[in-house]
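During the reporting period the student researcher (J.K.) took over the structure-prediction task from the postdoctoral fellow and processed the backlog of single-chain submissions. One of the processed entries is reproduced below for the supervisory committee.
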Amino acid sequence: MNIDFYMPVKIFSGEGCVSANQNLFDIGKKALIVTDAESAVISGALEDVSSALDSLGIGFTVFNKIRENPLILTYFEGGTTARNICADFIIGIGGGSSMDAAKAIAAYASNPDIKPEEIFESGLKPSLPLILIPTTAGTGSEGNLISVLSIDGKHCKKNFKSDYSYAKYSFVDPRYTYTLPYYYTVSTALDAFCHCFESYLSPKSSAITRALAVDGARDIWKILCEISPEFPLTYDQRRLLAYAACRGGIVINGTGTGFPHSLGYNLTMYHGIPHGRSCASFTGEYIRYNMLDTEGSRLIKEFAEKIGSSPELIAESIPKWANVKLTLTTDEINIFIRQVGNAVNYKNSPYVINETEMKQIYSKLFG
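J.K. obtained the following structure tokens:
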């Protein structure tokens, strides 16, 4: 087993970490803050960041047009806005959509001559510097270079990756997740769990990524087993989830994810199912197929034992918590396969499913 690892983001954690390190925001004269319409305000993150910038005499403009699964033209508009205000760095505040948007906007801002879909091409100029601040405990985007973009008019997502998309600094303050409703707390926790689990099975994994993956998944599993809508999460549970999600984001930086992510994108794009719940709905099938492979079976049993569970219980519980209720037609399933049939995720686990198996999975779960 190797110990290959690379994670250049400098992460600060703990309550009040933005205020305690406000001098680190002094990386330019004007910032574009990329966020959605609510979470940055409700969580208190925008207030803390605004205070830090004001204290340093740094100007800023808030671009709050990010929604769940925003389209690529929104990112392109954000890049234009950054250039128009002469922003020299970008601050992303929010869940995965906002932080991913900040990465893309930082690239568009420094590449004024490209068209929207040319962001996926090589040879781009370096992106503007980034600071990322999560308000959910899910994607872990603050710890990696990955930005998942929704393509206008195509009902599909595509990964944008650039060595310039790592944040210079990320601030993980659990307080910013306290106001997240139960439904989305569970969804984001499931996303983080899937990151850890799928990373663990990846052929690209190392001893370091597997150690982090197990460490994060153990906390998430324990909390998912404990919580319910009747009992609000404690601050300690929120803290553990925030840090576990960050670890999940770090590990997929080097390993990527498995087929639950590819198959899950369709449920999100066509039916509005939150990303974490979409991915988690396929975890049982992910386990079933990978158990057919000798190495996959070994890794699954090893992972389950280390988090204090069993393959059977994980396969039953994660989709149950996802609670996705859909009925798909044969025509829909065929469209879904065409959309994601060539995704690289399928080869990123011991057992590689084919298109026939993809259709069987969709039909079994949602037929």
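The committee noted the following: The chain has a mean pLDDT of 95.
J.K. will present the remaining backlog at the next meeting.
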